Structures are given as structure tokens and as C-alpha cells.
Amino acid sequence: MTNLIEYEDASEEVRTVYDDIRATRQTDYINNFWKALANHPPTLKRTWETLKEVMASPGEIDPLMRELIYIAVSVTNGCEYCIASHTAAARTKGMNEQMFGELMAITGAANMTNRLANGYQIPVDEQFKQ
Fold first, then answer.
1. Closest Cα partner for 44 from 29, 60, 32, 58?
2. Nearest residue to 89 (alpha-carbon basis) of 100, 98, 76
3. Helices 97-120 and 63-77: crossing angle, nearest 10°?
4. What percent of the chain has a predicted confidence (pLDDT) above 90?
5. In the chain, domain spans
6. Which of 25, 23, 24, 48 is nearest to 35 (CA)?
7. Which pLDDT score is estimated for 11?
8. Would you say domain 59-130 falls under CATH 1.20.1290.10?
């Protein structure tokens, strides 16, 4: 298991990232994902900057939809940690059990049809190409 770096044990570089996480998310909580990445401060900083840009910046996709997409990809990749953390985040943004059930049905169907299309090596229809 990876060592989890707590705030009081962190370097100044790591504390700066932790402080930004807290400010951006408006919480005092730093979750284990960030504490694990803090073992390599450049990776912590780079990953936080990317996630902050993708997940917290304004855009055409609303915050709940971003979380739902993240859950679907995490389910597909089999990341238990990301499924749990982004499901919790989606619930705070309004996801209910019905939405979660629909999301799992869509994710399962997409994974099935993706595998079938890949297995059969189906050529893409011309009308689908841009």
C-alpha cells in the first residue's frame, strides 16, 4: 500500500497543492487519492491542475454530467476508488438512484456493443464519419 501524505507531514510544495484543492472544493478534506500522489509532488501538481481544469472549469457540460461521465469511464476501467469518489461527488450534485441505475445500464450496454463492434471489426458507416 502506498504511503498517504498527511498535511502536517507534507512538504511546502505539497501543502500548496493541498491548499488549492481545499480552496477549489471549498472543503478542509483532502482525500486519499491526493495523499497518495503526494509521494511524487510533480505528479500531484500536474494531476491536480489537469483535473481542476477539466472538472471545475465552466463549460458546456454541467458539473453533474461531468461526474456521470467520470463514473462511466471509471466503471469501464474497473477503478473502484474513482467509482466511489465520483459517485459520492455526483450525489452531491443531484444524482439519485434512478439516474445511477440508468447510467449503469448505458455503461453496460456501451461496453457490450463496443466489444461486439471491435470483435466483428465492423467498418464505420460513411454517414457516421465527419
1. 32
2. 100
3. 50
4. 96
5. 1-57, 59-130
6. 48
7. 98
8. yes
CA atoms within 13 Å, Cβ hemisphere of 55: 19
- Mean of the pLDDT values across residues 28-50? 98
Q: What pLDDT band is residue 13 in, cutting at 50, 70 and 90?
A: very high
What the block records as the C-alpha cell of 74 is 471509471
pLDDT digits (tens, 9 = 90+) for 41-86: 999 999 999 999 999 999 999 999 999 999 999 999 999 999 999 9
Residue 5 CA to residue 18 CA, distance in Å, equals 10
Crossing angle (nearest 10°) for helices 41-51 and 12-25: 20
Radius of gyration of the chain, Cα coordinates, nearest whole angstrom: 18
Residue 1 has pLDDT above 90, yes or no: no
Give me the CATH topology for the region 1-57.
Answer: AhpD-like (1.20.1290)
- Among left, alpha and beta (phi > 0; psi -120 to 50; other), residue 27 is beta
d(CA 23, CA 108): 36
